[in-house]
Write a structure and sequence with these properties.
The protein is an alpha/beta fold. It is built from 21 helices and 22 strands.
């Protein structure tokens, strides 16, 4: 760790909520050996801004110009207009690892697997999150030529990665997070699904099933086609017997396909169909919220560098698909900050938003140079592709301020237009950087040259992250999610519980003479104001929380943002306790039809411990 230097803020100190100050003190501000904070929030933002501004020198900026960029970057963060991901706030001029998102390959060998385990430890020690695909690993019971024995399969090695994260987490300042993915066509797919249904296992992993367009076409046609899996080592195809033990089967328990063209009706009823597999995925998601699903062909159609290989996995929250060894730094613009009041009513300050997006793109591009990547392969690929992930937070608050309902066509249309504006502004800024600094080194091998004929600095620019902790610092709603509740309790890493009250609702209720501690407690118990008759109907229609909104509107909003997003969108489709599996079936299929790249559902109460809860 570099020696601590207090950075004098070049501008006004940030105005922060009590919860923001608490989070910064507990997790972000530098402490001495006794655990006492030796840094203020203003000094933190100054430290980060200086680290990013120093990268300007590599492109010809003199000392005075670096200082001017330092102030611009500081002002953007201190005003809470824009914040980068947590590792940048924590590590700037300390550990130096500023990126949040990594994907690592898992090769089908002991040497390859445990090399990736080591790499995972290095990344997570520095505060990054990791995504993996288990597709390359041969199935349980398959032959191992070097020993003459058989393999214990992907799940056993998955457990090694999970325990590695647990060990690193004990001494880390940020909870370790992973994404585990497996193709629906892998022979161990049933074991993969079964393993995550134990809520005490793999607690540091989200999981998703990768589904192809061809598989979805079979499902939507009738679902009666037999589900076929293939051994990644031999390419031999198999059928999954219906009576198989999902927790303990091996490759020897599957039925080899000797003649792929043999009519399916002769085997009907004995083996899993595509529809059966879909129902199992839906059943598991209904029970525990796992797995999510990703539409992998759709992701790879937007792969900006297909000549470098296919995308196999995403970061832990699913919004950033990456090549093996690739990394990405995220940042989010707090769009609620750009609502202004005019004579005609509230509106967006579009010119100021464009300026902030442009500054954010430059900030994130500088981080590619300033970041101390733990792995040489990641350093090489990150600098060759220069992917960044700019998104938004505070969207629900923005809608509240504009008087637009989340669950409305107007809300969805506004979401699409907002993300298009952000995306277009980001591309314009990246194009300007390309003229100043040159396009990303792999540009000549990318779709930006072959398809779009556009020189651009960054292979990928936009995604929508969940912004859990950063939205606490910014005192705004998370990502593009509706508010969880207008009043709720959030549990953070050290076990502390903090009460969060939506400031826009509190202001409105106070103006109507409605706000009181009694009302606060009422809302915190139910999560909703929809049955509170003392609150005007017009207010209830606008201030809806996550579980007041029908799943279709969650999905339509996700799809609206996905239309204008380079990477993907992290979004949870919330369902109430009484939602049955058919509701999840419907949600997943709608997400596919509307063009989402992945989808995650959560049925309220399906897990004992939730990071956000009611009284």
């Amino acid at each position: 760790m570099a020696e601590f230097r207090a950075h004098l803020p070049p501008g006004d100190a940030p105005v922060l909520s009590e919860n923001a100050v608490e989070v910064l003190h507990s997790r972000y501000l530098i402490k001495d050996r006794r655990g006492q904070c030796i840094e203020t929030p203003a000094q933190l933002f100054s430290r980060v801004a200086w680290s990013v501004a120093e990268a300007e020198a590599a492109y010809g900026a003199g000392r005075g110009e670096v200082k001017r960029w330092h102030k611009r970057y500081y002002d953007s963060m201190a005003s809470l207009d824009f914040l980068p991901n947590s590792p940048a706030l924590m590590n700037a001029q300390r550990r130096g690892m500023l990126s949040a998102c990594f994907v690592l390959p898992i090769e089908d060998s002991i040497e390859g697997i445990f090399e990736t385990v080591k790499q995972t430890a290095l990344i997570q020690q520095a505060g990054g999150g990791t995504g993996f695909s288990f597709d390359r690993l041969r199935p349980t019971g398959d032959r191992v030529a070097s020993s003459g024995g058989t393999t214990s399969g992907p799940i056993s090695f998955w457990r090694v990665f999970s325990e590695t994260t647990n060990a690193i987490q004990q001494g880390a300042f940020r909870r370790g997070a992973n994404m585990g993915m497996m193709s629906v066509g892998h022979p161990d797919i049933l074991r993969f699904l079964h393993a995550k249904q134990n809520l005490k296992a793999f607690t540091n992993f989200n999981i998703s099933v990768k589904i192809t367009d061809d598989w979805m076409r079979k499902l939507l046609k009738s679902g009666k086609a037999l589900h076929i899996v293939a051994n990644p080592r031999t390419k031999q195809q198999y059928l999954l017997p219906r009576r198989i033990d999902c927790a303990n089967y091996t490759i020897d328990d599957l039925r080899e396909i000797e003649a792929p063209g043999k009519p399916a009706d002769k085997r009907a009823g004995q083996f899993y169909t595509v529809g059966d597999m879909w129902k199992l995925i839906v059943k598991c998601a209904h029970k525990t919220g796992e797995p999510g699903i990703v539409f992998i062909d759709r992701i790879n159609r937007d792969n900006p560098t297909p000549s470098l290989g296919p995308i196999e996995a995403t970061n832990p929250c699913g919004e950033q698909p990456l090549l093996p060894y690739e990394a990405c730094t995220l940042g989010s613009v707090n769009v609620a900050k750009f609502v202004r009041t005019t004579g005609a009513g509230p509106d967006m300050d579009w010119p100021r938003l464009a300026q902030t997006v442009g500054l954010a793109v430059r900030f994130l591009d500088n981080i590619v140079d300033a970041c101390n990547y733990p792995l040489t392969d990641t350093l090489r690929l990150a600098q060759a592709n220069r992917k960044v992930g700019l998104g938004v937070m505070g969207f629900a608050d923005c809608l509240f301020a504009l008087g637009i309902r989340y669950d409305s066509h107007k809300g969805v249309e506004f979401g699409a237009s907002l993300m298009k504006f952000v995306n277009d502004s980001a591309r314009k800024a990246s194009g300007e950087l390309a003229r100043l600094r040159g396009p990303f080194p792999n540009w000549s091998r990318s779709i930006w040259k072959t398809r779009d004929k556009m020189k651009i600095r960054n292979a990928s620019l936009t995604c929508v992250a969940p912004t859990g902790t950063t939205s606490i610092i910014a005192d705004c709603s998370c990502g593009i999610e509706p508010v969880y509740s207008l009043v709720f309790v959030r549990q953070v890493l050290d076990g502390a519980r903090m009460l969060q009250v939506n400031p826009l609702f509190k202001q409105m209720a106070a103006e109507h003479g409605l706000y009181s501690r009694k009302l606060e407690r009422q809302i915190a118990k139910t999560g909703s104001i929809q049955k509170l008759a003392e609150i005007p109907a017009s207010v209830r229609r606008l201030f809806k929380a996550a579980y007041d909104i029908e799943p279709q509107w969650h999905i339509r909003m996700q799809a609206a943002f996905q239309q204008h997003c380079d990477a993907a969108v992290s979004k949870t489709i919330n369902l109430n306790e009484k939602a049955a599996p058919p509701a999840i079936d419907k949600a997943y299929k709608l997400a596919y039809r509307l063009g989402c790249k992945g989808v995650t559902v959560y049925r309220r109460g399906s897990r004992e411990h939730e990071p956000m809860s009611l009284y």
